[in-house]
Amino acid sequence: MKYQEFKRQLLKAGLTVRAFAELIKQSPNSITNYAGIDKVPSHLSIIAVLLAEMKEAGIDYKTAIHRLELQTNKPRGRSINRKSKTGEQD
User: What angle do CA 12, 31, 84 make, to 5 degrees?
Assistant: First the structure.
């Protein structure tokens, strides 16, 4: 799905990109990064379309998602000040 269509589906669901990211416990930057390649992964596209359809049908998707008790993902990559395996700072 193209990024603009993804955003359109989110708007149909009553969400901004930031609100969507918070709802699914992702970093807003990780979602907006897809604008640069103008393509959104299929799993996020499916979620956006289903949320839009649920909103149109009058189904409270936010309560359903909150029941999942999603956890925020830990950041990937290394901290600038993190020591390497040899004990030296990078």
Answer: 165
CB atoms within 10 A of CB 9: 24
Count other C-beta atoms under 10 Å from residue 25's C-beta: 13
pLDDT at 81: 47
Q: Take residue 29 and report the two structure tokens written for it.
A: 């930057």
- The answer to whether the CB of 54 falls within 8 A of the CB of 15 is no
**Residue 58: left (phi > 0), alpha (psi -120 to 50), or beta?**
left
For residue 47 the two structure tokens come to: 């979620």
Q: What is the DSSP code string of 40-73?
A: --HHHHHHHHHHHHHHHTT--HHHHHHTT---PP
Instruction: Supply the pTM of this predicted model.
Output: 0.75
In terms of C-beta distances under 8 Å and separation of at least 24 residues, what long-range contacts does 17-26 make, across chains too? 20/48, 20/51, 23/62, 23/65, 24/65, 24/70, 25/70, 25/71, 25/72, 25/73, 26/73
